[in-house]
Design goal:
Blueprint: E1 3-6, E2 9-12, H1 16-27, E3 33-36, H2 40-48, H3 50-58, E4 61-62, H4 67-75, H5 86-100, E5 103-108, H6 113-124, E6 129-134, H7 149-161, E7 165-169, H8 174-182, E8 190-193, H9 197-201, H10 210-214, H11 218-225, H12 230-233, H13 235-246
The structure holds uridine-5'-diphosphate.
Residues 108-110, 136-137, 142-143, 169-172, 174, 195-196, 198-199 line the site of uridine-5'-diphosphate (UDP).
Catalytic activity: UDP-N-acetyl-alpha-D-mannosamine + N-acetyl-alpha-D-glucosaminyl-di-trans,octa-cis-undecaprenyl diphosphate = N-acetyl-beta-D-mannosaminyl-(1->4)-N-acetyl-alpha-D-glucosaminyl di-trans,octa-cis-undecaprenyl diphosphate + UDP + H(+)
Family: Belongs to the glycosyltransferase 26 family. TagA/TarA subfamily.
EC number: 2.4.1.187
Length: 255
């Protein structure tokens, strides 16, 4: 698989079509498949945080979620083909689950959000099975409490549902910590962190209109809706400057 490194963090040079094909193939294997969908903020974070960096390095597929990584890839001289956003990949996997009758489990969000999201997904994709849902506000590996009673109960609930695909919406990097700590204990084949996507599927938050999506400006739409995010988002120009400065030290390879 062709990979690039941005700030030392490996990203797969996959298109959306390839990302879906690899996941579909993984569903027919026995091996578990962990998908990470970092944006520039998470790559920046992983550049500083060894634990997150190792998780991304070990993941089975790392797709570039965000225009910052596409620009960053041009700076390091190995342009990514396209942006593969987490929510679009999730939507394509839901489509596939519908066509093939696979089951999904949704975990994350405030009380009721995952259930509402599941309800709306089922309305759209009648043939897919919602194996179960769980909120994301419990003590667990994502809050620095691995093996807590609450985490054990959440995993028991998931295991009883025995899903094919598990979408974990605890925000990044919480969801990556949760999946990494528990993947061997959880039933399921594909595990994917999906950030705030359940808030979108539940109807709590609107996704940006197509025009923003096509221009790679979803972050701008989100900023208009949630202006308190400004401090975090202003990290994008800094990220690009950082990539530019570190560019010569990045080792890019194909394997
Ligand atoms: N979330 C959760 N459990 C937590 C923290 C967050 O389920 O302990 C959910 C939250 O409700 C939201 C999603 O994770 O649906 C993303 O949260 P947030 O926007 O705070 O994180 P970000 O995506 O900005 O990192």
């Amino acid at each position: 698989m062709d990979k690039i490194k941005i700030l030392g963090v490996p990203i797969d040079r996959v298109t959306m079509r390839e990302a879906v094909a690899r996941t579909v193939e993984a569903l027919s294997n026995d091996k578990k498949f962990f998908i990470v969908t970092p944006n520039s903020e998470i790559v920046f974070h992983a550049n500083k945080d060894k634990k997150l960096h190792t998780i991304i390095e070990k993941a089975d597929m790392v797709v570039p979620d965000g225009i910052g990584l596409v620009i960053g890839s041009k700076i390091v001289g190995k342009p990514l083909n396209e942006r593969v956003t987490g929510i679009d990949l999730m939507e394509n996997l839901l489509k596939y689950a519908d066509e093939s009758g696979k089951s999904i489990y949704l975990i994350g969000g405030k009380e009721g959000v995952a259930q509402e999201a599941g309800f709306n997904i089922k309305e759209k994709y009648k043939n897919l099975k919602i194996a179960g849902t769980h909120h994301g506000y419990f003590k667990g590996s994502h809050t620095g409490h691995p093996n807590s009673k609450e985490e054990t109960l959440a995993i028991e609930h998931l295991n009883a549902a025995n899903p094919d695909i598990v979408f974990v919406a605890l925000g990044a990097p919480r969801q990556e910590f949760f999946i990494d700590s528990n993947i061997e204990k959880m039933n399921g084949k594909v595990f994917m962190g999906v950030g705030g996507s359940l808030d979108v599927y539940s109807g709590k938050v609107n996704r940006a209109p197509k025009i923003y999506q096509n221009l790679g400006l979803e972050w701008l739409y989100r900023l208009i809706q949630e202006p308190w995010r400004f401090k975090r988002m202003s990290a994008l120009p800094l990220f690009l400057i950082y990539v530019l400065l570190k560019r010569d030290k990045s080792i890019n390879r194909s394997d």
